Amino acid sequence: MVSRFTTFYRHIVEEERKYPEATGQLSDLLADIALACKVISLEVNRAGLIDILGFTGEENIQGEQVKKLDVYANDVLTNVMKQGGHICAVCSEEEENFIPIDDKFTENKYVTNKYICHFDPLDGSSNIEVNVSIGTIFSVYKRVTSSGPGALEDCLQKGIHQVAAGYVIYGSSTVLVYTTGKGVHVFTLDPSVGEFLLSNENVTIPKKAKTFSVNEGNFCKWSGGMKKYVSYLKEIDSETSRPYSSRYIGSLVADFHRNLLYGGIFMYPADNKNINGKLRLMYEANPLSFIVEQAGGKSSDGNKRILDIEPKSLHQRTPLFIGSSDEVTLIEKYLSEDL
Ligand code: P6P
User: Fold this and answer.
1) Whose CA is nearest to atom 15 of ligand 1?
2) Which letter, b or e, does each residue of 300-336 get, where b requires 16 or more Cβ atoms within 10 Å of its Cβ?
């Protein structure tokens, strides 16, 4: 546990100070993302009240249109990024194309916006009606073009080139997890002061796990290797601590977060209907893969490292096997039988 009172911004600035060449843009960008997520958290935590308080769900008492929460989350994040002045392009699960943002003109000169961001503004939002934890996932890269509004080549980079990644879970508490390539750190929002406070530093994921997370309703659509692996996990064998426990919430950030802290493997494989799986490479698989590798875990599409995948489109899907390294290595072995 952490003994000192450290806010998220203090933590990122302390990291920044270790690098004389740092301009502070990444620290400010991460602080902007945290601010947006605090705002989203307020609305997510009120969501259940919309019906109870008699709002029509169409128009609130201020006469404003009550937006679907995932559209609301997207608008908050996009607007904060546009105003922040550090981003040349925003890519979102909610937007078909990337949103280019021009360099800002301040003190009679153009200042180049150095970064691009991918977001899943509110992953798992269909769970909100039943009060299941949902989350925001973000992924940050340095631009590859020199200046001006961002271009598609800035947005389609391999996950290995991320400079920062993280997620915020809106659950029993609001928790922010992030990495800039120097370990994985966990913060818990203290609503009374409106700050994310450091609760767990340099998190590591156990190499072996006791739980697996997968939607077994898809069992009949899986490959032979996938069926064999999940059946193996459910056999009784005390020497290998089997059967594993099955834990599947159906909300990626919640399933991932439990596995990160306790150990486990999350799987969303390809199947005969979704030949590339369901989850998205750029704003789900890549950021969580950066985090899990920083925590000593592993992430694969069943055949190769997620972070090495060359993206072809903003919303491309990928099979995802992510979590404790021994488990991911084992599932890759089972799936190699399918080749
Ligand atoms: P299924 C939620 O809709 C989501 O995108 C992820 O958060 C979650 O892991 C997955 O889909 C659940 O998918 O097909 O098992 O309901």
Assistant:
1) 215
2) bbbeebbbebebeebeebbbbbbbbbebbebbbebbe
How far, in Å, from the CA of 70 to the mean position of ligand 1? 15
Model confidence pLDDT, tens digit, residues 156-188: 999 999 999 999 999 999 999 999 999 999 999
Q: From CA 176, how far away is CA 199, in angstroms rounded? A: 10
Q: Mind listing the pLDDT tens digit for each residue in 25-43?
A: 899 999 999 999 999 999 8
pLDDT exceeds cutoff 80 at 260: yes
Is 0.85 topped by the overall pTM? Answer: yes
Higher pLDDT, 113 or 128: 113
CA dist., res. 3 & res. 235, Å (int): 42
Domain residue extents for the chain: 8-200, 211-338
* Cβ–ligand 1 contact at 284 (below 6 Å): no
Topology of the domain comprising 211-338 = D-Maltodextrin-Binding Protein; domain 2 (3.40.190)
Whether 126 is in the pocket of ligand 1, judged by its Cβ within 6 Å, is yes
pLDDT at residue number 101: 95
253 alpha carbon to ligand 1 midpoint, in Å? 10
124 lines ligand 1 (CB under 6 A): yes
Find out whether the beta carbon of 259 lies less than 6 Å from any atom of ligand 1.
no
Ligand 1 centre from 181 Cα, in Å? 27
Domain 8-200 has CATH 3.30.540.10: yes
Residue nearest to atom 13 of ligand 1 (CA): 250
Cα separation, 77 vs 95, in Å, equals: 12
